[in-house]
Design brief:
CATH architecture of one domain: Orthogonal Bundle
Strand content: 5-15%
Number of strands: 14
Radius of gyration: 28 Å
CATH topology of one domain: Arc Repressor Mutant, subunit A
Largest sheet: 6 strands, mixed
Structural class: alpha+beta
Oligomer: single chain
CATH superfamily of one domain: Winged helix-like DNA-binding domain superfamily/Winged helix DNA-binding domain
Helix content: 40-55%
CATH class of one domain: Mainly Alpha
Length: about 575
């Protein structure tokens, strides 16, 4: 049988595969043909053409051995031969994944390139989000510290692979540049990547310093640089902290850089990946109605071009959640339905996508308009899954902190926020993370600490109305009635939407909420706009106290809560 002839060329992790019958390994600027059977190449052609999909054994057999019955062991032998070549002796998960009872999936990112002419090799643009992590240079006087620099390099390579859509050169290839003076542009050309991450490690006395720089491999321009200083206590812990921090920062930097690149290079002809990247960059910024709408339109355009673009689906779902969670605009039930649909579609395509699980958690946190209880335990499970899939997803820790507070585990909130802040110490969500700690302190009756956290949150974002509302409650709990009143006045100035209460009436409502909270009944609503959650908590308290379950803070209920009756009440 003649093997399929195609003009397509596929690039993946140090290899170039030509479906006309050649597999080239590219290392350190040199290329060498790989000796492997034609049948194995046929199988590789089937798998890379459908990279990311599960391809059944029957489908492979029908494509490679048409019209013949082949022993399953034959396919197994050929797959094993491919793995020996492609995995390059590494112990990490193979690029060909066995899906029990179903078939095989090629899991390494693949770039498809059309041959430009029949007389020579194609022009091969580097894949988007393609990067090599060069071995960090050990600047310490002690050569024994070489292992520490190499360990950070290895961990960064692994962590960057978790970024959705990334193409990361394998560790064994990257280490061929160790100790060599080669500039980023040459490396980019040799490995076919857009970005080079380089840096150094210096350990002196009790201090460890790591410098990292992100370089554009096509222009040689430095795009981002940062220095990390840590006390050298537990080196493994320091290694985890530094690599997590760098990976988290690079996630946002690469998305922003790629978004700007696509706008600059293809302003009139963006593809689905360009559009999804631009949407993601917008959603990484503090939300506004106009910005959120732009992101949604970009996602819709991306999905019109490629309905299976998982990043676009994740961002689309995120834009819907932002509408009803952060911006409180539009038809909540419609946004919730659309977000759920986008999440389900994304997970059907990529069931291991951390970012999609984070958005799923935000959807699950609500079961009705503005109600934060929702399927709270399911929401926690989803965000913990996101963290298991990508331990450097700073936003996931910040969101988990909020869920812990809402689920009645305020003692867990601070540690989750601390991890988020370690990974992204200058994050645009910092005000929300500080608010989460404040809410936990408020729940635990630590009013002075809560006040301090809410004030820090407001310093980060003075327009964050929910921090003003809870600052008023913390002041009230601390007995600072005038400060509480003034905080509510400022809240009403920032958020002039009609409310049923004047500041003094709202203070009385907060007294009841705090009283319920002290007794273990969750009473909070969002900015006081929807009192259903409050009424349900009040009824539960009244039931426990053998009072009529009116859901109204009447005289007997206020008395049991230890709250004085206002004049005229």
């Amino acid at each position: 049988m003649e093997r399929p002839v195609s003009s397509e060329i596929f690039l993946f992790e140090g290899f170039r595969f030509d479906r006309r019958g050649s597999l080239i390994r590219r290392v350190g600027g040199t290329e060498a043909s790989v000796a492997i059977s034609p049948r194995a190449l046929d199988i590789l052609g089937v798998l890379v053409a459908r990279a990311g999909d599960v391809v059944s054994k029957d489908e492979i057999s029908a494509a490679v051995w048409p019209g013949r019955t082949v022993e399953s062991s034959n396919l197994t032998v050929q797959i094993a031969a491919l793995r020996r070549v492609l995995d390059q002796g590494q112990s990490h998960t193979s690029c060909i994944q066995t899906i029990g009872g179903r078939g095989y999936r090629f899991v390494t990112p693949v770039t498809r390139v059309e041959r430009q002419d029949r007389g020579g090799p194609p022009t091969m643009p580097p894949p988007r989000l393609s990067i090599v992590v060069l071995p960090l240079v050990n600047l310490s006087s002690d050569p024994e510290q070489e292992y520490f620099a190499d360990g950070i390099t290895d961990d960064l390579t692994t962590d960057l692979c978790r970024i959705s859509g990334s193409f990361v050169i394998a560790r064994n290839t990257a280490f061929t540049y160790k100790g060599k003076a080669v500039d980023a542009k040459q490396i980019g050309g040799e490995l076919g990547v857009r970005y080079v991450l380089e840096g150094s490690v210096r350990r002196s006395g009790s201090r460890v310093r790591v410098n990292a720089q992100l370089v554009d491999a096509q222009t040689g321009a430095h795009l981002w640089a940062e220095r990390f200083d840590r006390e050298s206590g537990d080196l493994l812990q320091i290694q985890d902290e530094i690599t997590g921090h760098i990976a988290s920062r690079l996630r946002a930097e690469l998305v922003e850089v790629e978004s700007s690149r696509s706008l600059r290079e293809r302003p009139n002809d963006p593809d689905a990946v360009d559009l999804a990247m631009q949407a993601r960059a917008l959603l990484n910024k503090p939300p506004s109605p106009e910005q959120n709408e732009r992101a949604r339109r970009l996602c819709e355009r991306a999905l019109a071009l490629d309905p299976n673009n998982v990043d676009a689906l994740a961002s689309l779902a995120g834009s819907y959640v932002t509408s009803f969670h952060d911006l409180n605009i539009g038809d909540w039930s419609e946004w919730h339905r659309q977000a759920t649909d986008a999440v389900n579609r994304a997970l059907a395509i990529d069931p291991q996508n951390a970012r999609v699980f984070l958005v799923k958690s935000r959807v699950l946190a609500y079961s009705d308009e503005l109600e934060y209880r929702g399927q709270i335990e399911a929401a926690i499970d989803a965000v913990e899954t996101a963290i298991a899939l990508d331990p450097n997803l700073a936003a996931a820790y910040g969101w988990l902190a909020r869920l812990y507070a809402k689920a009645g585990h305020p003692e867990r909130t601070a540690s989750a926020v601390e991890q988020a802040m370690r990974l992204s110490p200058r994050d645009s969500s910092m005000a929300n993370w500080l608010y989460n700690i404040g809410t936990a302190q408020l729940q635990m009756g630590r009013y002075d600490l809560a006040i301090a956290m809410f004030r820090k949150s407001i310093a980060e974002n003075p327009a964050l109305t929910i921090s003003w509302a809870n600052l008023a409650a913390a002041y009230l709990g601390a007995g600072r009635e005038l400060d509480a009143h003034n905080a509510l006045v400022e809240l009403r100035r920032l958020d002039p939407q009609p409310k049923p209460e004047q500041p003094d009436e709202q203070l009385q409502l907060m007294r009841v909420q705090l009283g319920l909270l002290r007794r273990g009944f969750w009473p909070y609503t969002v900015n006081g706009r929807d009192h259903r959650v409050f009424r349900e908590a009040l009824r539960a308290f009244q039931h426990a106290e053998d009072l009529p379950q009116t859901g109204i803070p009447d005289r007997d209920t206020l008395s049991r809560l230890g709250i004085g009756i206002r004049a005229g009440g």
